[in-house]
Amino acid sequence: MTRPSPLALLPMVLFLSLFIGSGLFYQAQGIEFAFYEISAPVAILPAIVLAVLFASGSLNQRVEQFIKGCSDPTLITMLLIFLLAGGFASVAKAIGGVDATVNFGLSIIPPSLVLPGLFLMTAFMATAMGTSMGTIAAVAPIAVGLTEATDLSLALTVGTVVGGAMFGDNLSIISDTTIAATRTQGCSMADKFRMNLKIAIPAALITMVWLYLQGSEVQVSENTEHSAVKMMPYLLVLVLAVSGLNVLVVLLAGIVLAGLTGLLLVDDYHIAQWAQDIYAGYTGMQEIMILSLLIGGLAYMMKEAGGLEWLAQQIDKLSRRKEAKDDQQRSGETSLSLAVAVSNLCTANNTVAILISGGLAKDIAGRYQVDPRRSASLMDITSCVVQGIIPWGAQMLLAASIAGLSPLQLMDSVIYCWMLAVALIMSIAIGRPLAAPK
Q: Which of the residues 30, 51, 157, 381 has an alpha carbon 20 to 30 A from that of 195?
């Protein structure tokens, strides 16, 4: 049995110190692209070495443990999404599909409503699809195109997409986080959905008002000509995504239709160019693919070394110290939310964080009389907040790669997740006990 150990968490602390610390240092020196001076896939290497040193067993066993983390099926699926999303975005851009879609949207939507409309569209897609990754892959290129046709901030526009994607991922009844939260807490998806609405809807409304104010004076370029045929790849992706088709199949279909559209309608576009555009999309994703792979291995090693178990123990001890009877529910809700947040920070995966902390959260909820519907809702919302703002999370890495930004530049632009965090804290602070489920 693995012995809980705080030392197992030091590799993640080292990685964040090197990545964020070096970026802030070079930024203070006035160097452009400061956070690329020491890229994240390089900054994580010393952390991996440290994790190997802390691991038990022979050197070969330690390396095999790291490789096992890198080969997790969920991680491999995520890497394939990165590849196909890069290929689709690259081909769609090359044939003019992005420009056509953006210009069409700008021709029918008032400029002041572009950002709120983008948030709503993304939120609807993510709710229907049940995946924030697939939604970001489909919509982020449109957001980038919007900034090229307007004077909107690139970080804000792409951050709006990430926020909308996290909204839908949190509320969707087919999302893996919803399934994980409800199963670990023993409640129905419908009950958890209703609980989530009470926190998510106010946060979403405030976000849209703020986005409206930010875009109220946006300037749009005069050229809004668009081709309906060139929009077809995006329309296909949107329709197939909402229909519930596997996101990998959706993106592959988008690549095929975008390429065929280019071959038929774009002068001098040929099969070799199509292949080059797909490969260019692949290469544009190489940094986040490498980082995601290495983070997967590092997170697994920290878990196997007892780091996450140690965290769970500390949170459990903290919750047991809070014995004030009039504050029982608030103490329990705070403790279980903290358990998910810390797990998410270490694993960079919201579903895994919920599964890891699910047993502890259920125990805390039982001791402090927190309704299972409420605990499931708080777990899912907390993981949504953390996953939507951490720069080493898959959603931020994908969006930043498509936009050509550092994920750290997007952190303060995912307005919805910050508003959701405020709504979550207020809900815990002023929340009232729920009646027992019938």
A: 157
